[in-house]
Amino acid sequence: MYRNYKSLLIYLSILFTAIITNSSNADVCKYVDNYGRITYVADPEHPACKTKQKESLKLEISKLEEKKTNASVDKCERNNFLVKESRYYEDEHNNPTLEFSIENKTSTPISGATIEYTIKSQDRAVPWIEEIGRFDIPGGIEPGEKINKKFQPIQLRMVEIPSSAYVAVRISQIYSPYDKALCSTPMFSDQDERLLEELKKNLISTE
């Protein structure tokens, strides 16, 4: 009985050490970045971290490249739903407002859209705001029709934006009269492109 008890203690000791070591390595390597992704940082004391970092970067790059490919072959008519002009201003009630003219060159009436909008100043490299928002179009917009649309997302009230700022708008999704999304794949945005380039640079730096 004593021999079995001693063997059990040795086994438990080895098991406990293995668990602590693996847990320690995982905690040292694991890192959650600003995008909420789990990535891995290389630590000279833990060589396995560099391998995990490469694997994580390759996985993120693969996902983004797949998204880019799918977006390029999507038959959605989003590119025919045109934003002709756009501007930013404060209305008579001091409400921050986006206003743009839209032309529907698709083959179907459109009831609304999701847009990606960026507000910048000429003398600043960093945008005041980059957001995604959806707006509805009462009565819709028929094929060939043009309308002006005002959009007042609540996010604009959270940032002090100078009146000299300008806005760039991209359409990421359009909706049918029955509120059905007409694009089967998400648009590959400017943010996606910048992130893909950043990840590729990080991967090269690990070589």
List the keywords:
207 residues; alpha+beta; Immunoglobulin-like; three-stranded antiparallel sheet; 8 strands
Structure report:
This protein is an alpha+beta fold. The chain has 2 domains: 2-73 and 194-205, no CATH class; 78-183, Sandwich (Immunoglobulin-like). The chain is 34% helix and 31% strand. The chain has 3 helices and 8 strands. It has helices spanning 2-29, 48-73, 190-205; strands at residues 30-32, 38-40, 81-90, 96-104, 110-120, 129-141, 146-151, 166-175. The strands form 3 sheets. The protein has a 3-stranded antiparallel β-sheet, with no helix packed on it. It has a 3-stranded antiparallel β-sheet with strand order 6-5-8, with no helix packed on it. The chain is flat. It starts with a helix and ends with a helix. Residues 15-26 have low confidence and may be disordered.
